[in-house]
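ok trying again, last paste got cut off:
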Amino acid sequence: MIATPDRTPLPRDFFDRPVLEVAPDLLGRILVRSTPDGPIALRLTEVEAYDGPNDPGSHAYRGRTPRNDVMFGPPGHVYVYFTYGMWHCMNLVCGPDGRASAVLLRAGEIVEGAELARKRRLSARNDKELAKGPARLATALDVDRALDGTDACASGETPLRILAGTPTPSDQVRNGPRTGVAGDGGNGDIHPWRFWIANDPTVSPYRAHAPRRRRS
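nice, full thing came through this time. structure:
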């Protein structure tokens, strides 16, 4: 018998831990996006950890800026950034207040509100592709910079919330190099900080960093 996912919201102290503890522990948890048209719920299947000043792959490696300010806490808040001039990506801030670390939400399975996600992801060939990759995940859930700084642990109504769900057993968690990260930050021997659920069809394919070519 498959256990019913726990709908209890995760408390702030869940996120007030080292990023390498929080990241794999997010697998199997449920992210709920409240929209005017109804909720969209997603089971997290793939994430990446980023550890601020200790991590050359992190947006906060060189210090605090207006763009990455939310990464410095408090934990349990949402950090949304815009990339390549076209896509948004969503992170959950963790660790102690004042020290920048966050978990990038890379992929998941839409478990509620798929009809709403399909309207935003018209190019998806099937429901397994609705949130298969960080930009697709944000698009499917209607997440953009307007939600940067949202408190996912706030009481009452909030546009984003994380529920306990069904944590993934440790023997089903895999880890390896982060996708598309350059230099030491993408070195899987140094930072094997992408975590995913083994054999889950919604996990995105690994791609090494490829420098963007400038148009002549």
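cool. The first helix runs from residue 12 to 15. Residues 59 and 68 are 7 Å apart (CA to CA).
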